[in-house]
Fold:
Amino acid sequence: MATNDTCVSVAPYFQIHAGKMEAFKRICERFVATSATEPDCLYYGFAFKDNLALCREGFKHAQALLDHLENLSPIVAEMTTVSDLIKIEVHGAEAELAKLREPLNKLNPEYFVLEYGFRHDPTK
Structure:
């Protein structure tokens, strides 16, 4: 069963530095506010477990993710002062992942290829 879903989801995990939780959360608020302005961002948010944070992100397609990274670039440097990126996963159909492999190479992501599934049209 093939899928025609072009959605790309991303899951970066951050280890928050000791004593920096409040500063991290203030930066998260800015990330969320900025991401909310992106028309091809399907969802975006942060989840927490102790001093570990997960950013849960979904985009209509690979280009939307690349546009998102460019849009957030002024804030990303701040995030690195209060946390360490310890892991990043990228999920999607191979056709979309292929568009991301070179641009995301420096982040050393772990790719998961979507082979089965569907996505409901939220406009219906």
